[in-house]
Amino acid sequence: MSPRWAPDPGVRRSRHVVYKLHAHLVFVAKYRCNVFDDEMLTRCEEIMRAVCADRGADLIEFNGDEGHVHLLVHYPPKIALSSLKGVSSRYLRAEFTDRVNRATMHGRFWSASCFAGSYGGTPLQVVKDYIENQRRPA
Residue limits of the Transposase IS200-like domain (predicted)? Predict the structure, then answer.
């Protein structure tokens, strides 16, 4: 006899919680500086994937353009998504000193604000497609 429902592969379990949390994040460079090129976006994605993995989250989709990045993150309820900004800022400022004007950006890489939206009832594929279609610099 087969079960009447199939388990959702997006549902995660840890010791004390069962969750299915996805957030669409948009981080903007300080003063909307156009600092990203393909190399820097690729490195930013690597950093974001590593930070997510360290915290038990998954970076599902990543893209961006000259001044901002979009992320779709599947995360456990215990982590603060804003921690992605702090860690990535330190790495990007250290690795791309030629592109990050410390005087203009006052020692910060990201704007203090960000967008964080839960995907709610929207099909996850719609959010993934939107992020995938964000323009990367040529």
Answer: 18-134
